[in-house]
Amino acid sequence: MNQFLSYFRQHPWQRRALTFLVSLVIALVAAVTLWPVIDDHLLIRRLGDESDWLRERAVREAATQIRQSPATLRRLQRALRTT
Question: Angle 70-82/52-68 helices, nearest 10 degrees?
Answer without folding.
Answer: 130
